[in-house]
Design brief:
With about 300 residues, this protein is α+β, with helices and mostly antiparallel strands. It is built from 7 helices and 17 strands. The protein has helices spanning about 45-55, 60-80, 85-110, 115-125, 200-215, 225, 290-300, and strands at about 1-5, 10, 20, 30, 40, 85, 130, 135-140, 145, 155, 175-180, 185-190, 235-245, 245-255, 260-270, 275-285, 305. The strands form 5 sheets. It has an 8-stranded antiparallel beta sheet with strand order 7-10-11-12-16-15-14-13, sandwiched between helices. Strands 8-9-17 form a 3-stranded antiparallel beta sheet. β14 (about 245-255) and β15 (about 260-270) form a beta hairpin. α1 packs antiparallel against α2, α1 (about 45-55) packs parallel to α3 (about 85-110) and α2 runs antiparallel to α3 (about 85-110). The longest helix is centred in the first third of the chain and has 23 residues, at about 85-110. It is rod-shaped, with a radius of gyration of 35 Å.
Amino acid sequence: MITCACGARFEVDDTLAGQEVLCPDCQQPLKTPAVDRPPQLTSGWALASVVLALVGAFTVFGSLVAVLLGVIALVSISRNRRQVSGTGFAVFGICLGLLFTGLTLFALNTADVFGLETWLRERTLSKQVDTSGPLEVVVGVKGFAITRPTEKWGQVRGNQSEDPAVAFLQKNLALLLMQVTHHAFVDVRTMPAVAGRTFDQCQTEILAEFENTLKHANFDDDDDEFRQVNHARLVASRQLGMKDGAEGRELEVDIRCARQSWRFLIRLYRRGNGPFYVVRAYTPKRNVGRIQDELQTALDSFRLLPR
């Protein structure tokens, strides 16, 4: 309430505090008293958004929470403009959170673009692989031999890798070869001779075995997509000519496991009514162009030893 020298009393809106107004009766200018307002406080939500975006960078969860805090800060500021500030901090936190979330997801899905996947694989799996000795590996007790395509290929000790992506598909092998850098494998196993078993039956068993193994694989991940992978898909099947007195068939199979698509080239060999030899060469599909010639070389080198 303001009182003029002429005796008039009137109210002035708070937005005119500290300014000159005219008396409605005598039209004389009057200085309105300033209103004591508490200083604005910077929103704690906004500050927390910026801090979490920086501290939680490349963690996905942390950067997404930073975005959420930034949004909460903007809502809070809009409702309390006179008491709370920090819009710039909130917007900055949101932008940082979105940026780091996008970069993290991109890096996780294209890790090999940055060499992260290769580096990690070489650090964890190289000690398992023995690249010494002659290129041809002879497994006399099982009656076969196969040649490593290059010296970068080596035999996995114990014929069982610790690669989480495919270790569950490498059971009961007679031989396992690996090229660590390009994430490629060649393995051999035998299927006992069963009277009347045909190549068609053997092929059906292998595909069913893929599906059953993938379905019951135990992944250390709660994501259903990671745990329950797609079924194996037969891409092609063709008969091969006689080799070392054995009939042969080649299969091309695509599977998805550990969030990756894999290409399997599989050859089946049987001499007379003996056991089936299953020779598999496989790698993630994105690597096929770089390593296909070596996979083919390994498959072509497989031979059955004389009886």
